[in-house]
Amino acid sequence: MAATALTALGPALAQAAPLLAPVFTDHAVLQRGQPIRVWGAAWPGEAVELSLDEAKATATADAQGRWSTTFAAREPGAALTLTAQTSGERQTISDLLVGDVWLCSGQSNMEYPLRRSLAGEAEAANSADPNIRLLQTGRTSLPEPTTALPKEAAWRPATPESANNFSAACFFMGREIKKTTGVPVGLIDATWGGSVIQDWISREGLHALGGYDEGLAVLADYAKSPDLGMANWSAMLGRWAAKAEPQAATWNRPDFDDRDWKTMPAEQFWETNPGLETFDGTIWLRATITLTAKQARQGATLSLGPIDDLDTTFVNGREIGSSQGWDRPRNYRIAPGVLKAGPNLIAVRAIDTSGGGGAWGPAAQKGLKFDDGSFAPLGATWRYKVSATIAQSGLPPTAPWVGTSGLSTLRNGMIAPLVPYGVRGFAWYQGEANVAEPQTYQRLLTALVADWRSAFKAEGGGPDLPFLVVQLADFGPRHTAPVESGWAGVRDAQRRTAAADPKVGLASAVDIGDIYDIHPANKQQVGHRLALQARKLAYGETTLVAAGPAPLSATLSGGAVVVRLDQPAVVQADVRPVGFELCDAAGGCRFAEAALTGEGVRLAVPAGFSPAKVRFAWADSPILNLYGVTGLPATPFEMAVAP
Length: 643
Fold this sequence. Notes:
By secondary structure, the chain is of the alpha+beta class. Helices cover 21% and strands 31% of the residues. The longest helix is centred in the middle third of the chain and has 19 residues, at 226-244.
């Protein structure tokens, strides 16, 4: 294994770390059918002797204290013991099985624990299986890659205790794979709810993708100095705001007249205010605090409570700080000379990217805290004005070091410590956090697939590792007319990624969600559909139907649009398929009468209408009744109509 595949440990860390990398613990599963890679840390230049039962290997630590070696490939059999030793240290781990390892990752629907799934208590109580092994990485966000895992991260046999909080979808997938293959299965749960896909791609992967270099530079600055990183991100956010909302250029100034602004309570999400129930975007908040001369001369901290999600805060027209985090209290130290006797303006640019929004938390705790212990309250209300929706402004540049919404930090903290552990493939359930930018999701998902495949590629090469993707479940209100939908856009990006790569499998959840709950409990069916894709792509069942119907083409023919599908389809609960739309070149869409044909679906074109594209199940929570003969749902899609 090339040294470049390892994150630099450094001599100091090498002295303190165990000989074996932390991913190697008792009860681990080693990937069958490929050379077994083992690595760790020792004193620079020190020789390391290893044994895997009867097999022997040696390695020498490099100048950074890194060492690595490989053992010959094995097939499942008796439990093994791995020993590493130097002249002064020895480490042994035991009860190692050889089988198949799957890395499961994503946001909250992959993180969703077994105990909360349908019949979760019963599922957990019956989860014990010595041939299923579980590893949870824990949550770690870092500006640079690490080799470390939390000390509690260790391989454990599946038991009611170890499986209880493990990823339900991953567990159900692994249980079915083990039943089908008959070999031990190791499952790795590396998940964090609410995380964007950009946070799971390496720095190198994002750089190659393009468009993220400014944020990556800020992240590098933050790794050197948090203060430097904060200052540079605040400047980056200011440049974005100047372009996104030029009308707000003077709204932070004390001489701006805001008497016509509306008011809202200072202690609740702005979605509780009439007209803002579903607002995502930028709103400015202003309040005035009147101070005495004595107060104005003192040092002070402005406390605003949490602000959902991002803020830039000004006092008397001067910026005093920017922060990110929907539940992170804002406490900004104010430089001498900013405050004055009399009225002092507090202005906040608050940006909410999804749900909630604005300054919340107890109003009584918001205000100026002076060094002498006194307090000047903000008051019970804000004056506010809507600046721009997310659709108008685009997404703001988030602080790139913040886990779940940053750049590469979860890849650094939760995936890097696993590289290059042998795996059979990946299962990915994520996308809800990226529904505001569906137009970029295919490029990002393709980059993630390439990034992880490269990192975990088997020693000596081999075919691309299977990558299984859960297509987003339905969530949100139903609509009786065609609408734009970021959820549908992400689903289509997932479909197109799978269509372009024969080793990417799509496990749709579009029909098993909950319109009232973004976290549907039916993870058994998600795991089953992932296992179907694993059987097809990883285990040689090439003729297995592992997904529902998908479009191959859409053509205009004889006053109708004919959508050709990749497999026979059936209609459930009706005689005609529902959910098809025809859209013209200007973007106007209307539902279309549909009928099954021998090769797909035929859509009637209304008189005088010129269809440019066809959509199916294009909504956050689509109503669909088109399935494959095996009971799997047809995939939502958008496709240009060929003449």
